[in-house]
Fold this sequence. Notes:
By secondary structure, the chain is of the alpha/beta class. Helices cover 40% and strands 12% of the residues. The chain folds into two domains: 6-44 and 290-398, Aspartate Aminotransferase, domain 1; 62-285, Aspartate Aminotransferase, domain 2 (3-Layer(aba) Sandwich). The longest helix has 22 residues, at 289-310. It starts with 14 loop residues before the first helix and ends with a helix. The model has no long low-confidence stretch (mean pLDDT 96). The protein binds pyridoxal-5'-phosphate.
Amino acid sequence: xxxxxxxxxxxxxxxxxxxxxxxxxxxxxxxxxxxxxxxxxxxxxxxxxxxxxxxxxxxxxxxxxxxxxxxxxxxxxxxxxxxxxxxxxxxxxxxxxxxxxxxxxxxxxxxxxxxxxxxxxxxxxxxxxxxxxxxxxxxxxxxxxxxxxxxxxxxxxxxxxxxxxxxxxxxxxxxxxxxxxxxxxxxxxxxxxxxxxxxxxxxxxxxxxxxxxxxxxxxxxxxxxxxxxxxxxxxxxxxxxxxxxxxxxxxxxxxxxxxxxxxxxxxxxxxxxxxxxxxxxxxxxxxxxxxxxxxxxxxxxxxxxxxxxxxxxxxxxxxxxxxxxxxxxxxxxxxxxxxxxxxxxxxxxxxxxxxxxxxxxxxxxxxxxxxxxxxxxxxxxxxxxxxxxxxxxxxxxxxx
Length: 400
Ligand SMILES: Cc1ncc(COP(=O)(O)O)c(C=O)c1O
């Protein structure tokens, strides 16, 4: 349609949303579908956070907030970074946006010029390349590989950096692979970045609190303080506080960048929802007791899913450190035929046939830039996960 912007033709639709929609349609037609394609915790927002929002409404905190966020939330963000990451930021170095996604989008919009390159390790969260393209930049993909547990290696980082590189986007724990960088793994990457002073670091720490076992979370500016002056540390309340619908994300970084993001935001949203911001103050400053409960539940589910998927013929599933996703390879099953006579040529064929045959919705890895794999979200009940994995095992065993 000639009326629409050319930029739209350069952007891909979200495969995760498409898969969720397909599953929804099948369910509506009466099929018993288990969806493993969702990207949000199945827990409810903790009660004290909801109460803080109700009280904010009662106090009349219902007017336009400052564009960069209400000061009490920006102060809570400063405290959070100090307490949890050992990072020292001033209030003027923080910004609040309408979800983590919007914070990233603003950072890119405020900085990218045509021809600027953004390094994105794959597999990546589906939105990164599309946001870069929408902002006029060029995504440059860095390879990771299952043999490295989907983690970027320093030599590959060195290889993809060019004079045009403006940003690298790091995401740990990762959506879609669940992989998370230890302090030492991250240090090897920050050492490379120290040699390239023109490259800025956008670190998406959205899943910081969802790590399992004795894994210790680390973030680039903490691992290498020398990078602080060119790092945007982004985080949010969506995943750790089960607040996806409240739409609050935040970031901290050098003041000129934050000012530019504020400038962009002032002509877009005029700031994030005031009531949600008060709820986020309670999330960051309040008790973190729910986190132990979330983590224990997710760890149990991760272990269940990894174990059952590794018993499925032809699937290989590494054990990731965090988030609520696993990313098994289905490479051995490519070329096999379903009972209905369809040849599985790609991971997309695999998820489509799996949905048709067994009513299990997963997302194909190629949508995240690395396949043949599947992304499976385990943010659902143990009972549903057990049933879904049993069906996946049956489907894999049925392929000839
Ligand atoms: C890696 C990653 N970053 C950012 C976001 C966006 O978070 P929000 O819902 O706060 O916009 C998501 C959500 O799925 C995510 O997986």
